[in-house]
Amino acid sequence: xxxxxxxxxGLRGMSxxxxxxxxxxxxxxxxxxxxxxxxLLAEKATFEEVAFLVLYGKLPNLSQLKEYKNTLQQxxxxxxxxxxxxxxxxxxxxxxxxxxxxxxxxxxxxxxxxIAEQQDKTNRLLxxxxxxxxxxxxxxxxxxxxxxxxxxxxxxxxxxxxxxxKPVDDLHKKVMDASLILYAEHEFNASTFAARVCASxxxxxxxxxxxxxxxxxxxxxxxxxxxxxxxxKQFKSVDEAKTELLKMLxxxxxxxxxxxxxxxxxxxxxxxxxxxxxxxxDTVADPTLYDVSCEVERIMKEEKxxxxxxxxxxxxxxxxxxxxxxxxxxxxxxxxxxxxxxxIMEQRENNRLIRPTAEYNGVEKAVxxxxxxx
Length: 374
Ligand code: COA
Prior knowledge:
Blueprint: E1 22-24, E2 31-33, E3 36-37, H1 38-44, H2 47-56, H3 62-74, H4 80-87, H5 95-109, H6 118-142, H7 155-164, H8 170-183, H9 190-200, H10 205-216, H11 224-232, H12 238-250, H13 270-281, H14 288-304, H15 310-320, H16 328-349
């Protein structure tokens, strides 16, 4: 119960089950994947190591990592029928909808016939997701049919080189890799919980993932990085950011990229991506977006006592890498797939149908009136 005796809504603060995958707490070092601080993983590990850790519960050794990366690299190809479907999707479609359709159609072509296939299907989804997105993006935008079988040995490299259809800068690969690590897992967030609900019905992995993509799409969840960029790009200078933001706050507007349903003091991922955003800003001709972002962060702290969440500095970091804005949230999918699949496997391991109850607050006893008399 809250102080004014109102029950918390949105299941806030309630435990909805047990998990050994991740912890989300307070302060720095508050996000841990299988017991490792996310800050440490972003500094020392690669995304593939983190994916292995989250999915299989332990860090890979050198040969396991090599084999895992090799397996993922072999699974990037798009089936011809899937290419045809992607080519038929309109240019104005939101890429999150493209991913939802792409995954769903892949589920028709390569169905999961039993749970024994779940690890193979997870590998396939992790490897193919950037291919689905970037094949469609390049075809819809430039009419170009890219070859998704590039030589990059990491998912970060595959993502960037298939998006731009050319070799990629090392700093950009490093930032993308760290970004994928930061977004990989986050306990019972809305999309993961939705995936677990779907898994609890004994549905297939593709249905669970399309459920999760649809849930992540909203601006209160994964869509916040895109929404934060749309906010920031309106401000042409630090002064303009200050004036306009104060107006927005006095109008009680929600500022995208701030606040969090669980963290109350800080989001431990923010410092990591902020530092990369700064590093990237030093490489571009116009770093105003970084300065504007810092000013917005400062004002939000001063005026509202609020902190920037992980999505906020992703907006400038991705923009400095020239990633199209509408692809920001789909990158989150390429990463969070790891957490979704780990949770689907965990749910299946010890399954019970997730079926809460509701407190009824409707009409107590309704009176029937025949159709002709209503
Ligand atoms: N900008 C301005 N005010 C905000 C705010 C924001 N980003 N986030 C919350 N608030 C305010 C609310 O308006 C509310 O004020 P009130 O008590 O006067 O009504 C108060 O802070 C509490 O907000 P609440 O919506 O209860 O917080 P929540 O824990 O339910 O919601 C979010 C968390 C993430 C949904 C919310 O902070 C938000 O919408 N943030 C922007 C979207 C975003 O960045 N999402 C990504 C999350 S990683």
